[in-house]
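Side project, low priority. Logging it here so it doesn't get lost.
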Amino acid sequence: MNSLTEKFTVKTFLKWMAICFIIGVLSGSASSFFLVSLHWITNFRETNSWLIALLPLGGLLIGFLYHYYGKNVVKGNNLLLEEYNSPQKKIPFLMAPLVLIGTLITHLFGGSAGREGTAVQMGGAIADQFTSIFKLNTSERKTILILGISAGFASVFGTPLAGALFALEVVYFSKINIKSILTSFLVAYIAYYVVEFWQVEHTHYEIHSFPNITFINLFWIILSGILFGLTAMLFSKTTHFWHRLFSKSIPYPPLRPFVGGIVLAFCIYLIDTTKYVGLGIPSILDAFLHPSANYDFLLKILFTGFTLGAGFKGGEVTPLFFIGATLGSALSIYVPLPVALLAGMGFVAVFAGATHTPIACTVMGIELLV
C-alpha cells in the first residue's frame, strides 16, 4: 500500500511539474510576442497619428470578429472566473488569438486600454487546453485555470510573486489547496524567466526618497489612500456605465466599437494630444519625476472607460497605473510627501481598489517600485 501511494505521489508530482513547465513556456512566449508587438504598434502609431482617424474601422473589425467568431469568449476575464466557480465546458483556444488581435487593433488605432487582460486570457485559454490532454477532474481544472492566470499576469508585467498572488486572490482564495498555491508560484516564475529568455524588457519605476514614519505622514498617507480608493470606484463605475449605455443603445454588437471609435477619434482630435491613448507609459514615468496636471487622471478614466465600454479589447491595469500615478503626482502639490512616493502609492492603490486584489498589488509595488 505504501509503495502504491508513493508511486502515485511521484506520478502526480511529475504530471504537475510538466503542466507548469508547458503552461509557463507557452504563456511566457505568448506574452513575449504580445509585448514586442505592442511596443512596435505603439511606436508606429505615435509616428503615424493619422491612424487614429481609422479607429472606427478598427472597432468595427473587432466587433465583427467577436460577433461572428468569438461569441463564446466575448466575456473575457469573466469567462475564466465563471468557469472556475461553475465549470461548464473547456474555454475555446480561439480566445487567445482573438484577444491578441483585438488588443493590437485597439492600440494601433488609438484606443485607451491596457495589456494584462490580454495576457491573462491568453494564459487561461492556453492552460485550459491541457484539461482534456491530462484528463483532469473538476478540482484539477480549477488549479490549471489559476496557473493560466498566474503565468499570464506574471509574464506580461515581470512580477512573478504578484502574478502568483493575483491568480489566487482574484478567485477570492476559493477552494484552493496547497497544490494550487505551490504550482501558481512555480508557473509564474517559469513564465517570467521565459520572457527573460526571449530578452523582452519590462518597465520599472523608482522611488528614491522615503520620509520617516510619523503620525502626520501617516495622516497624509491615509487621506491619500481614501482618495485613491474613491478614484478606483469612479473608474469601475465609469466603465460599467459606458458598457451598459452601449449595450442598451446599440443592439447590434459590431456597431458599438464602431460608434465608440468615431467619438474617441473626434475627442483625440479635439484635445490634440495622444497622451491619453494606449498604455500611457511615458506619462506614468514622468509622474514619478514631476507633478502631473490635476486633470490627467480624470481624462484617462474617461478615455479608458469609454474605450472598454464600447467594446474595444485590452486590459485595465496599466491605465489604472496611469490614473493612480498621475493622481498621486498631482497630489504632491498639496500633500507634503515626495512626488515619486505619492505617484507610487497611487500606482498601487488605485489598481488594488479597482481589482479588489490588495495583497497582490502590495507585492507588485515592491517588485516594480523598490
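Brief comment: The two ends are 51 Å apart (CA to CA).
Revisit when time allows.
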